[in-house]
Amino acid sequence: MIKVIASDMDGTLLNSAHEISEGNRNAIKKAINKGVKFVIATGRDYDSVHQLAEKNGLECEFVLMNGAEYRDKNGKLIEKIDLDKSKTKDIVNIMHKHGLCDKIFTNDGMYTTCTEEESMKGMAFQLQVMNPKLTFEEAMEEAHLFNGMNAIKYITDIDEFLNRDIEIRKIFGFHTEVSVLDETKKEVEALGDLAILSSFATNIEVTDIKAQKGFILGKVVDEMGISRDEVMILGDSFNDYSLFTEFKNSFAMENAMEHIKEIATYITDTNDNDGVAKAIYKMIPEIE
């Protein structure tokens, strides 16, 4: 009997229009009404995710920042795994060396050591990856309107920042050249005890090695007294890998990366064709 459903967001729960389809939304609500916990597992932070859940009328819990946080349906922090502050400066310096603009996710919101102009350009490039039809000029206009950009705080002295009473959850970087990201990942990996993941081919996301989606979800369900056989997971990309190694009831999206498909127990339909709903109905057929 399935008691927990955990789904990745981008490329899984969200379609190409970055929305939760009516089919997926209805299936999730039916499962919740039956008493199943629904968990959104994402690389994003709480502020950018809970609004989406509220907009769609979903009462759910959250694995955030690739597994650096677990929050309940009210946003209460249940578990956290911080990045070693002593490695933060080295990670940021490596990113800068390769031309990446950093975003530092903390318990006090998002920070960056980049300038506002660099951050806007980085956001524009990300928007272009998500919507290739956008010109750079159009993407820059959208970046200026993007709510998340207004919340970024700018660091002028990294040493002073690190001396604050602040908890660092994740460091994010973006680059349009995959070869540059590969070299960046190698250098960051050499620092040791870090999880270096990606939600897209064009980004890098660094957390403590224990801060991964599958690990923190496993810890929470164990503490709840729920068997891991009573959990189903869905994902499509690099940062979902630990979900597939920790839980056997695993579904890769048809649009997933090949190495995710290879380790999945099941393959469901694409994120544009209600793949999440179809997987839920396969595991909980009585709610269809």
From TrEMBL:
InterPro entries in UniProt: Cof, HAD-like_sf, HAD-SF_hydro_IIB, HAD_sf
Q: Identify the SUPFAM superfamilies for this entry.
A: HAD-like
Q: What GO MF annotations does this protein's record show?
A: magnesium ion binding; phosphatase activity
Q: Which GO terms describe its cellular component?
A: cytosol
Q: What is this protein called?
A: HAD family phosphatase
